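*** Fold description ***
***
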Amino acid sequence: MNPGHQMEFHASCGHLISAPADRAGQDARCPHCHQVVRVPQTDVPYASPVTAPAGATEPVALTALYVTALVGGLMGAGLIYMVMFNEFSESELVTITPLWFFPVVFGLYGFVSQRLLRRIASGRAGTLGEAARMTIDVAGSWAALVLFPFLVLKWRSSLLVSLAAALFWAVLLWLFFTAVFPTL
């Protein structure tokens, strides 16, 4: 082994890191997530590009749908709460909340699920739950609250995952309004 040679590999968090080739088989600390990872043996081609299997990438139209939903929902919330807030009664505000909330949730979960599915396609994770746990390891345990649907769902379609996550948050929103505003 050439002692000056660097080898690149993916840490468990998914980040690409490098280590001296003479450290193969030893432990190293990831500079991104600070977890201890084992430097792979040099005969394992970790640094080589991984091609995604056929059908692993999703249509660009889905990304456009997520962008449109997210931007539209955020613009709707901005319009309602920054421009037209005084024109609505409390019960009307509760009634129109789903009109901006669900597009935001759908678009956001669409983006996140596409990113997690890319981890699976690149071989850095085997399941959606595993990919989500990698994100939780990096972002912290609070991220489990947002990534909960990904920990339990097994689908490999960002559209199905986004719809299920929107349904999950619909139930939570309904429970919130039922508990906080039961008379509305």
